[in-house]
Amino acid sequence: MTHLLHSPFFGLFAIVAFGVMLGAVRVRGISLGAAGVFFVALGLGVATTLSGKSWKLPGELTELGLVLFVYSVGLQAGPRFFGILRRNGRSFALVGIGSTLCGAAVAVLLGWGFGLAAELTAGLYSGATTCTPALASVLDAVRRTTAPEDKLALASVGYGAAYPFSVVAVVLIVQFLPRLLRTSTVDAAAAYRQEEARRSPPLEECAFRITNRNCAGRTIDELQALHVSNAVICRIKHEGQIQPARPDTTLYLGDVVLAVGTPDELAKLEALLGDVVVESLADPTGNVTSEQIVVSRRDVFGRTLRDLCVWERFGVVVTRVRREGIEFAPRGDLRLDPGDVLRVVGRRPDIQALASTIGREERALYETSLVPFSAGIALGAAVGHIPIPLPGGLEIQVGLGGGAFLVALLLGHWGNTGPVRMYVPHAVKQFARELGLVIFLAGAGAGAGARFVPVLQESGPQLLLAGALVTLATIAAGTLLMFALLRWNVLYGAGALTACMTNPPGLAAATRLADTDAAAVGFASIYPVALISKIVLAPLIFMVMQLLT
Question: Would 179 be classed as within a structural domain?
C-alpha cells in the first residue's frame, strides 16, 4: 500500500478524480470547475508537508499537461486567429501589454513598500500572474548576478506564495463577469454569432429568370469566365424540365436558374442575368437532387476542386462547403480538408460517383495521424527553447508551453506540414485539452502545496497580500481596457482575461459560460502578447528592485 501511495500515476489520477468531483459542486451558480483538481493537490501537498514528509508529482508530468493543453487550444483557435489579428492587432497589444504592465508596476510598489527582496518580488509577480516561463526568466536573471543559492530560492518562494490565489481568483472572477457587467451569456453568445455571421455572411438561394439578351446563347462556363459574381448556379429550368448546371449547358431567354451565394454576390448575379422570381426548381422525378458529401479519402486531402475537375468530370455543382462550423461558397482553388462537408447538386448517379471519389471513408475522420501531431509538439518544444536576446546581456525563452502554443496556432491556421495534411478531430482536441489541463493542475497544485507552509513561515501574510493585490490589479486593468474602453463581447473578453493572466484553469471556466468558441479565440488573441510581456517584465522587475533596495 505504501508503494501504491508513492506511485505518481496512482496519485495523479486519484487527485484528478476527486478534484473533478469537487469542481462540479456549485454554490449559487459558481463552481471551481477544473480548479478543483488544483485544490485537492494543494491540500494533499500541505498535509504531507505538515506531517514532516515530502510529496509532489514529477515535474515532467506537469509540463506534459501544460503542453497538451495549450497545444490543443492553439489548434482550436488557429483557423480564426490570424484573421482576427489583422483586424484587431493594436487592441490585442493594448490589452496584453497594458494589463501586464499595470501588474508589474503594482508589484514594484508593493515590493518597495513591504521591503521585499528583489528576487522575492520578481518571483511574486510571476506567481501572481500564473506565468511559469516568467519565473524561468527571473531565475536566469538572478543566476547572472552570481547570487548565492538562497537568493535564487527566494524567487521560487514568491512564485509559490502568489500562485494559488491567482488560480482561484481568475476562475471565480471569470464566472462573475457576466453578472458584474450585467450581461446575459445567452445574449452575448447570440451577439458573437451575429458578428461572425456579418464577417462570413450566410449563404442563400435565389432564382432568376434570364431576361438579359446578352446572356442568351451563352454556356454556364462562359458566364462563369466573366467573373461577375462568386455565386454558384446549380439548377436550370428549361421548357419545364429541371437539369443540373453543367459547364456546357446553354442558357436561353425565359430559362429560370437557381443560384447559391451571399446576398451581395446574388445581387451581382441579378444584374447580369435578369429578374428575381419565386419559383421552385425541385425536380419532381428525383433525378436531379442535392446531397451532402463528407471529404474523407486521404488521396484527395489538399487537392483543389479544380484539380479534381468536379464540375467538368462529374457534372456536379458544389454549392456550399462547411468547415469548422463555417459555411461558405466554394471556388475552384479551394483545397479540400478532412471533414469538409460539401453540398452538391446533380444527377443522382453523378453524385454517387463523386462520393466514391472523395468520401465513403468517414471512419478515417475519427483517426488522428500521430506523425504531424507529435511532430508539432516536438517543434513547439524546440521553439520554446530558442533564446531571445535582450539588452543588458539577458536572454529569454517562451518556454515549452509558449512554444507549443505558437506552433499550434500556425498548424491550426495552415493545417499543412509539407506533404502531410494536419487533421485532428474535434473530439480529440477536446480530450487532449481537458486531459492536459487536469494533469497540469494536479502537478501545479502539488508543487504549490509543498512550498505553501514554508512560505508562510518565512515571509508571513504580507507576501500573500502582495501577491493577491498584484493579481487583482492585473485583472482590473485588463477588465477596464476590454470592457470599458474597447467594449468587447463578455465571452470573448472572458477568454482574453484568462490570457492576460496566462491562466489555463480560467479558460476552462470561460468556455463553460456559453456554447461558442468565443473564449478560446479571445484567449488565443491575447496569450502570445501577454506571455512575452511577462517574460520580459519579470527580470526587469528584479533589476528595478535591485536599484530601489
Answer: yes
Mean pLDDT of 538-545: 87
pLDDT tens for each residue of 29-45: 556 666 678 778 878 87
- Extended beta strands in 384-511, E state: 388-389, 395-396, 416-417, 420-421
Find out whether 75 and 408 touch, Cβ atoms under 8 Å.
Answer: yes
Residue 340 is which amino acid? D
Residue type, 480: L
3-state secondary structure of 263: helix
CA-wise closest residue to 37 among 49, 45, 29, 27: 45
Residue 44 lies in a domain: yes
The residues, any chain, with a CB within 8 Å of residue 460's CB and separated by 6 or more, are none
Helices and strands (DSSP H and E) totals, the chain: 20, 15
Q: How many CA atoms lie within 13 A of 177 on its CB side?
A: 35
Is there a domain that residue 61 lies in?
A: no
Three-state DSSP class for residue 31 = strand
User: Please, where are the H alpha helices in 225-298?
Assistant: 263-273
The x, y and z cell numbers of residue 56, run together, are 509532489
392 dihedral zone (left: phi>0; alpha: psi -120 to 50; beta): left
Q: Which of 547, 500, 541, 464 is nearest to 119 (CA)?
A: 541
Q: Look up residue 251 and give its DSSP letter.
A: P
Query: How many domains does one find in the chain?
Result: 1
Q: Which residues pair with 317 in a beta bridge?
A: 345
Amino acid, single-letter form, for residue 140: D
DSSP class of residue 335 equals: B
Whole-structure pTM value: 0.64
* Residue 120: closest CA among 449, 458, 397: 458
pLDDT, position 501:
92
Q: Domain containing 531: what range?
A: 2-53+80-196+431-548
- The pLDDT assigned to 98 comes to 93
- Phi-psi map region of 143: left, alpha, beta (phi>0 left; psi -120 to 50 alpha): alpha
C-alpha to C-alpha distance for 400 and 383, rounded to whole angstroms: 8
How is the beta sheet containing 241-244 ordered, strand by strand? 241-244, 232-238, 256-261, 204-210, 274-277
pLDDT surpassing 60 at residue 487? yes
32/25 Cα distance (integer angstroms) = 8
Q: Which of 462, 440, 431, 398 is nearest to 65 (CA)?
A: 440
Per residue in 215-269, pLDDT (tens digit) is 888 998 888 888 888 888 888 998 888 888 888 889 999 999 999 888 888 999 9
Residue 246 lies in a domain: no
State whether residue 375 is helix, strand or coil: helix
CA angle 426–77–486, rounded 5-degree value: 140
Residue type at 316 in one-letter notation: V
Rounded-to-integer distance, Cα 132 and Cα 399, Å? 8
